[in-house]
Amino acid sequence: DVKVTQSSRYLVKRTGEKVFLECVQDMDHENMFWYRQDPGLGLRLIYFSYDVKMKEKGDIPEGYSVSREKKERFSLILESASTNQTSMYLCASSFGGADEKLFFGSGTQLSVL
Amino acid sequence: ELKVEQNPLFLSMQEGKNYTIYCNYSTTSDRLYWYRQDPGKSLESLFVLLSNGAVKQEGRLMASLDTKARLSTLHITAAVHDLSATYFCAVEDSGTYKYIFGTGTRLKVLA
């Protein structure tokens, strides 16, 4: 089974802190994604990566950056956390072939105080 | 810019009844996905629809895709309590690797 592992299930940070959210997949997937999920807004794409060291902005990249130094790992960075970044963050990956369904991690609930 | 709309946002239905969830999208795409999310859990893939007229069925759920109308439906037959969850559709923005999600439909099946 494909496994997408997010390093923390719950995280509490202070405003202004630098925050790292880590995601690792074990199926040699080409594509990796970061979404945030907020009530009433569904899932919104922050950044995605289709290859090592490659990244593309999603719909809401402001205040975030990403890093993909190795194929299996995709990190989301909040340079200076703000309260409006309190959210559930979901990492996903896909193989990149014809059947490109996403496999999701269990999510990180981030609270910024 | 690709936009994906789902309706209804909330659905409360009795066991044994049928209902349909709708997913509309704004630009051309022939790849549409349905996911299920249980409370407190992450998303799991239900269906992958890759061409116009595609129909997939599993158990009491059936999904279809009409790319000309830019519409997908998720039909629930004889609902049971175990189907209570939030259902999301997602559309691939053609050629971009981006998947855009709808806002989700929260389904509650009452015994």
Account of the 3D structure:
- The complex is a heterodimer of chains A (113) and B (111).
- With 113 residues, chain A is mostly beta strands.
- Chain A is built from no helices and eleven strands.
- Chain A has strands at 4-6, 10-13, 19-25, 31-38, 42-49, 56-57, 64-70, 73-78, 87-94, 103-104, 108-112.
- In chain A, the strands form two sheets. In chain A, strands 2, 4, 5, 6, 9, 10 and 11 form a seven-stranded mixed beta sheet that branches.
- The termini of chain A are far apart.
- In chain B, strands 2, 4, 5, 9, 10 and 11 form a six-stranded mixed beta sheet that branches. In chain B, strands 1-3-8-7-6 form a five-stranded antiparallel beta sheet, with no helix packed on it.
- Chain B has strands at 4-7, 10-14, 19-25, 32-37, 43-49, 55-58, 61-66, 71-76, 85-93, 98-101, 105-110.
- Helix content of chain B is 0%, strand content 58%.
- In chain B, β7 (61-66) and β8 form a beta hairpin.
- Chain B has 111 residues and is mostly beta strands.
- Classes of the chains: A mainly beta (113), B mainly beta (111).
Short description:
Chain A is mainly β and 113 residues long. Chain A has strands spanning 4-6, 10-13, 19-25, 31-38, 42-49, 56-57, 64-70, 73-78, 87-94, 103-104, 108-112. Chain B starts with a strand and ends with a strand.
Q: What's the total number of strands of chain B?
A: 11
Q: Could you please say which CATH topology of chain A applies here?
A: Immunoglobulin-like
Number of helices, counting only DSSP H or I runs of 4 residues or more of chain B: 0
Radius of gyration of chain B: 13 Å
How much of the sequence lies in strands of chain A comes to over 45%
What is the CA–CA distance across the termini of chain B? Answer: 41 Å
Percent range of helical residues of chain B? under 10%
